[in-house]
Task: structure prediction
Amino acid sequence: MEVLLESRALSKTFTSGNEQEYQVLKAIDLQIRKGEFVAVMGPSGSGKSTLLYNISGMDQASGGSVKFGGMELTGMSEQELSDLRLTRMGFIFQQIHLLKNLTLLDNIILTAYMAKKQSRKGLNDRAMSLMKQSGIEGLANHDITQASGGQLQRVAICRALINQPDMIFGDEPTGALNSKSAGEIMELLADINRSGTTILLVTHDVKVAAKTDRILFMMDGSLVDENRLGKYRKELDDLRAREEKLTGWLAGLGF
Ligand SMILES: Nc1ncnc2c1ncn2[C@@H]1O[C@H](COP(=O)(O)OP(=O)(O)OP(=O)(O)O)[C@@H](O)[C@H]1O
Result:
């Protein structure tokens, strides 16, 4: 499979208040292939979110290279990065960030509509079809006060998919949900992945990671190990066995 995202010797350094430099990412070499579903795990503060921001062009690396779809991100202007994120990437976070005075459907299409590249009718139709696929088509004209946390995360997933991105980045997308909703969101993401969208997400949750193909383990700014579980097949695979395999692996890494 073709490589979609690649980093080489990616580093990120922050400068603290007293001018001390603090290296959060240390020479990260990473390859994500088209169609993969990858999770990043590791201790708090190990640099997982920073990695996600730097490989998706939300933040600028301090050194090394990041290529997405063959294009070098380091050195792109803010406008170029913003266009790339809007047209080829989708983002989902623990905090959902929806606007309260809009309907859920309008929340889904807002950013794509502001980019003025697609008609309102085309966006509405696509948003409705995504809402249907996500099991929330009945909520199109509701606002954020009329939906549960799990339903709002589905809205955020529809928003992330509105421009048919090549890749979705998720930072703890199930972190604020109860375990039932988290499981359902992961089933939805697994379906989206099966239909071709590459996904990378950061998670602390073994149950979440067990539904991905490959789990990277990050420690102190470096990727130190990975576990290839292979694609999760809902009807055939024993999810409990995948979770146990991961739990044993993580325990071996001291996590
Ligand atoms: N903008 C910033 N300025 C300064 N330091 C930062 C900044 N962003 C992150 N850091 C520091 O970088 C380190 C890694 O943070 P990061 O959020 O990437 O870790 P994480 O593995 O995602 O943690 P968690 O699991 O707790 O979310 C932390 O020590 C954090 O304080």
Summary: The chain is about 35% helix and 25% strand. The longest strand covers residues 3-15. The pocket of adenosine-5'-triphosphate is lined by residues 14, 24, 42, 44-50 (CB under 6 Å).
